[in-house]
Amino acid sequence: MRVVSDDDAGLLLWKPVGSEFATLVDADGKTQHQLPVDQMRQPQLVRKAWRDYDILVLMPPGAWHSIWWFYKESAFVGWYVNVETPYFRRDSSVDTTDLLLDVVIDPRGNRQWKDEDELAARIGHPLYPDAEAADAARQEGMRLIKLAEEGAYPFDGTYVNFRSDPSWPSPGLPDGWDSESTRAQPVC
Question: pLDDT tens digits for 28-38?
């Protein structure tokens, strides 16, 4: 992703359609959304192209979420609340742990929970959130839903008209992204 800004509001990142990312896939083509990580057969990180939507991602410092603005052909089409642990920095990256539960909010404020079934199926698994953490994830999602209902920041129109600089090259994975020494181990 391209760093747009890094200040007291958080780390603001841009990922356009077509840019590279790495995803965990097993020998059968299944992802960690389909199977718990420890049940994946010969999992490996593979390079893919980001599809469907350009995204602007805000990772506020110390927050248990990130906010994603989705754009289709430069038009804002909605927000995505990714419930996750607060990020921590590495030399050239940040790490966070996805807590599986998400909220999708359209521009009119309609919302829906995402991945509730995935979270419910993984509660109690040693690599995933326990019941207490799952409840905390739901409470964080509900807190952000309330902000969206109120039209409060970041759901107040901030960044809905964002346009990337056309001179920005498409972000790619850094050299050595797939080497053992730079690869973060899956942590849930």
Answer: 999 888 888 88
- End-to-end Cα, the chain, rounded Å: 22
118-147 pLDDT, tens digit each: 999 999 898 899 999 999 999 999 999 999
Q: Which residues contact 180 (CB under 8 A, 6 or more apart)?
A: none
pLDDT at position 182 over 50: no
Of residues 51, 107, 54, the one with CA closest to residue 79: 107
- Which residue type, as a one-letter code, is found at position 178? D
Q: Is the dihedral of CA 145, 151, 154, 155 positive or negative?
A: positive
Instruction: Give the tokens for residue 91.
Output: 């030399």
d(CA 172, CA 170): 6
Q: Tokens 């959304």 identify what position?
A: 33
DSSP 106-170: -TTS-EEEESHHHHHHHTT-TTS--HHHHHHHHHHHHHHHHHHHHT-TTSSSTTTT----TTPPP
Contact (CB, 8 A) for 129 and 120: no
pLDDT bin (cut points 50, 70, 90) of residue 180 is low
In sequence order, the 6+-apart residues with CB closer than 8 A to the CB of 163 are 74
Tokens of 180: 């053992």
